[in-house]
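User: Study the fold:
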Amino acid sequence: MAVEAGIVGLPNVGKSTLFNALTAAGALAANYPFATIEPNVGIVNVPDPRLEIIQSFIKTKKVVPAALRLVDIAGIVKGASTGEGLGNKFLSHIREVDAICHVVRCFEKAPGGEDITHVSGKVDPIDDIETIETELILADLQTIESAIPKAERAAKGKDPEATARLKVLTALQPVLAEGKAVRGLVESGAFEATEQKKALKSLGMLSAKRVLYIANVDDSDPLGEGVLAQQVRERAKEEGMGCVPVCAKIESELAELDEADHMEMLKDLGLEEPALHTVARAVYALLGQQSYYTAGEKEVRAWTIPTGATAPQAAGVIHTDFERGFIRCETYSVNDLVELKTEKAIKDAGRMRIEGKEYVMRDGDVCHFLFNV
């Protein structure tokens, strides 16, 4: 299952340019203040050099990397909750995503020196961040306030699920009414009961999601060392969120090059990798995700699991039957494979570990699961 991230931001901050570059989705979007409310959706492979290493030792028919699903929605403007611009109905498209990628404008003029209109008339990353955050909070508040009356009626029947839903709603409402995101409340572990977790997930609270700030920088500052990008970094640090600098213009140019020219341009710019690598890795880190691998003659595949997942939980990502009937896991590291070359040699050297139900998966484990159902 792909990790999902929703791309948000004010109009004209470079969201669509970045989306097109990351997904190679086609021509760059025009500079329109308000675009369509229909989302752009793209699925990109998560770059992972360990897959190539495994495949070099275990010959296989195909290699399947982990995937990142990106959902790009129309630009949000101040007052969207009261109908400004296109309103906020399109926010429903990102209620199910795992994380939010907030693109923030950190350049004064467009490449070439021409002006790109900023909806508020000035380039101020922190003000932009607060505008979007406020609109997400207000959208959540609308969701909560419309859901409470129905939940109150349902809870009168003493149904545990309905009672849990009402408890979650009434806990979230005052926080949102104060203009605060509910992220802190959710991450504090306030809703640990199973029914409460289920209710919270069904609400799809936007201000509960973790945020990766993408500072869209000028092509003269690809590393984001300028004042505007530094402001975004500091804001992210204060919130415990992530931040990466990206130049959407450079990425759109890179997307059109073949691999050799692509790498040469990166080197000339002093960049180690393209934005897709940076963004994908940052999203995984933000969400506490890691990869493990299965490898055989048919395929070598990366699987995404939360850090701290047990072996049965990891097996369940492949199929629920694997978790239900889990017996044991045979596992080794990519480094073991590099050193000893084959799985047989790994076994002969006593490096093939046999792990049970309590085993906590390590990033980069290569696994064979044994199960019985």
Observations:
- Confidence is low (pLDDT under 50) at residues 25-35.
- The chain has 14 helices and twelve strands.
